[in-house]
Design brief:
Elements: E1 15-19, H1 22-32, E2 34-40, E3 47-52, E4 55-61, H2 66-80, E5 84-93, E6 103-111, H3 115-119, H4 131-143, E7 149-155, H5 167-172, E8 177-179, H6 182-192, E9 195-205, H7 214-219, H8 222-233
Parallel strand pairs: 1-4, 1-5, 5-9, 6-7, 7-8
Antiparallel strand pairs: 2-3, 3-4, 5-8, 6-9
Helix pairs in contact: 2-6, 4-8
């Protein structure tokens, strides 16, 4: 086992779906995976392994923010040999044509986090998705009749900012949505030479102020989950 994941070698599949909310991990395991077995409950950050369409697959909660996802992805890659990690998460829209419940595939992730500044000695790094996973997810989405938005997002370190209009600068430069983990996942994918992708459902809009309920975010974003699962096994 690792420090934060109480699993044995072999308990975690080569491909893992990542969810910020551990209850969404539980929902996916109970409703989409057959024969799922819980391998982690440390800090209630639930993790499960089961089978989807004949393929062995895991789903792991990661918590909110870059420091939290960094812990779990580092341990999944380093200690458990995970080869592919697909984040299925939520985001806030910052473009007028991106609506609540739309799907966004994050091609790249800007960030205001200091994590990569520390890593790269103040130099800039451009965290990007793995093209093979990105293309698969796009093709799966289109086949399901749901053309996703595909482009850059912003991974913010702060949910509550002093400047409520800070997002407008990122929107001006083409970012589709704001979330809190993608830049770290993509950076770690590059570091460990693993395949990574972030698939997002828009849970709220910073433009219209429309917002979904916690129960919707936990249980009803099934299209995103199905796209992530089909991408993982295709």
């Amino acid at each position: 086992m690792s420090i934060h994941i109480a699993a044995k070698k072999g308990d975690v599949a080569d491909t893992v779906l990542l969810t910020g909310d551990p209850l969404r991990a539980k929902f996916i395991a109970e409703n989409f995976l057959s024969g799922s077995v819980q391998y982690n409950s440390v800090r209630n950050m639930l993790g499960y392994t089961g089978v989807y369409k004949g393929a062995r697959l895991s789903v792991q909660g990661t918590g909110m923010g870059i420091p939290s996802i960094s812990i779990y992805v580092n341990e999944l890659f380093r200690e458990f040999g995970v080869q592919r990690a697909i984040r299925a998460g939520t985001a806030g829209a910052i473009q007028p044509d991106v609506k609540v419940r739309d799907i966004v595939l994050a091609m790249s992730a800007s960030t205001d986090s200091g994590a990569n500044s520390v890593r790269f000695g103040g130099r800039d790094y451009a965290p990007t998705a793995s093209f093979n996973l990105l293309k698969r997810a796009y093709d799966v989405s289109v086949a399901k009749g749901r053309a996703p938005f595909t482009g850059p997002v912003i991974s913010s370190d702060m949910f509550y900012t002093l400047d409520p209009d800070e997002w407008k600068l990122w929107a001006k430069f083409g970012c589709l949505a704001v979330e809190m983990e993608c830049a770290e996942l993509y950076t770690l994918g590059a570091q460990y030479k693993r395949e990574v992708l972030t698939i997002l459902t828009i849970s709220d809009s910073l433009i219209t102020h429309e917002i979904t309920t916690p129960e919707e975010r936990e249980k009803s974003f099934t299209q995103m989950i199905e796209i992530a699962l089909e991408t993982a096994v295709s």
